[in-house]
Design a protein that fits this description.
By secondary structure, the protein is α/β, with parallel strands linked by helices. Helices cover about 40% and strands about 20% of the residues. It has 12 helices and 16 strands. Strands 7-6-8-11-12 form a 5-stranded parallel beta sheet.
């Protein structure tokens, strides 16, 4: 959105108001489209809008594939820094593409396709990122429920989203304890009216989960034979993911984000303001995997680096050390560029 980002905030805002069609069509050029939209939005009688209604795209392609195609395959896309295990994993765009394409193939082999719902009940591990992007790759709709969430509340989300597939982990790690997720998931499914067809479970070394024959599947075993699959183009207004509130005011509410959100991530912030204004609580831990740790940074790889940390277990010293290291690298890069310009 190079043209839209020039000038002060007031100037950019005024341009969006005075010349909205021009402004948003220019913004849309920052995204790769399978079918390029010819108009920005269509208004409905009820006051809702359909953005880029004749456009088709794939969010996963914009987040991953296009950067590999542009020669950025070796660039780091994702850094997973675990405060609990002390392990740091770095994934280049090429590596991320391979992981996501195979997870998507694993999901597709169990019937997941365009418009199907997938519930992700995992801690902040790389596989959770792979699962989210894999859903987008297939045109499926995902909903992230923060790992360790109570069974009764998880059951409500299962009933509402009606996921054919649940992607889960055997456990999560918190200071001084291991939290087994599978018993919570089993209880939630027993409480829910809707029953998912399958649960694919990532077995973590800290806790091995028992699998229910016929329903539960081992992540590693399923991934081993899964083919890598490509991106499916979907309509701009098709749902991308479902975001639930914490449910502290009763049954909770949800926000459905569509695929054009990658053109304007601010859409999510506006949705959240409306949900909060209506008196519903939102637990920021639930939105972290979808927004802060994934969507915005990797779609624009020249602007951000993703650092995934468990919100409930952040070590402040480690957090600051990680960013100090990143800042030092950025400073060194800037100095190198400056020297080349002088030369």
């Amino acid at each position: 959105m190079s043209g839209s980002e020039t000038g002060s905030y007031a100037e950019v805002y005024r341009r969006s108001i005075d010349r909205p069609e021009e402004f948003w069509m220019e913004a849309a050029r920052a995204v790769d489209w399978t079918v390029t939209p010819t108009r920005t939005a269509d208004a409905e009688p009820d006051g809702t809008w359909h953005w880029f209604p004749d456009g088709r795209l794939n969010s996963c392609y914009n987040a991953v594939d296009r950067h590999v195609a542009a020669g950025r395959g070796a660039q780091i896309a994702l850094i997973h820094d675990s405060a609990m295990t002390g392990a740091v994993q770095r994934f280049s765009y090429a590596h991320l593409l391979d992981e996501v394409a195979r997870v998507a193939g694993m999901m597709a082999s169990h019937g997941v396709g365009v418009g199907d719902r997938v519930l992700i009940y995992m801690p902040m591990v790389p596989e959770a990122v792979f699962a989210m992007l894999a859903c987008a790759r297939l045109g499926a709709v995902h909903s992230v429920v923060f790992g360790g969430f109570a069974a009764a509340e998880l059951a409500k989300r299962i009933d509402d989203a009606a996921p054919g597939l649940v992607m889960a982990a055997s456990c999560g790690l918190e200071p001084g304890r291991v939290v087994a997720y599978k018993p919570l998931l089993d209880e939630a499914i027993s409480l829910a009216t809707y029953k998912p067809r399958h649960c694919i479970v990532l077995q973590r070394p800290q806790c091995h989960a028992s699998l229910q024959p016929g329903r539960d599947l081992d992540w590693a075993e399923q991934l081993a034979g899964a083919p890598a699959v490509g991106c499916v183009a979907v309509a701009s207004g098709d749902p991308l993911y479902i975001l639930y509130t914490s449910g502290t005011t009763g049954n909770g509410s949800f926000v459905r984000l569509t695929r054009h959100t990658i053109v304007d991530p601010g859409q999510l912030r506006e949705h959240l303001k409306k949900v909060r204004a209506a008196g519903h609580a939102i637990d920021d831990r639930e939105i972290a995997p979808d927004l802060y740790c994934l969507a915005v940074p990797i779609v624009q790889p020249d602007r951000s680096v993703t650092l995934a940390l468990s919100v409930s277990s952040i070590d402040q010293g480690k957090f600051e050390k990680s960013f100090d290291a990143l800042l030092k690298k950025l400073t060194q890069t800037a100095e190198q560029i400056a020297r080349r310009l002088r030369d």
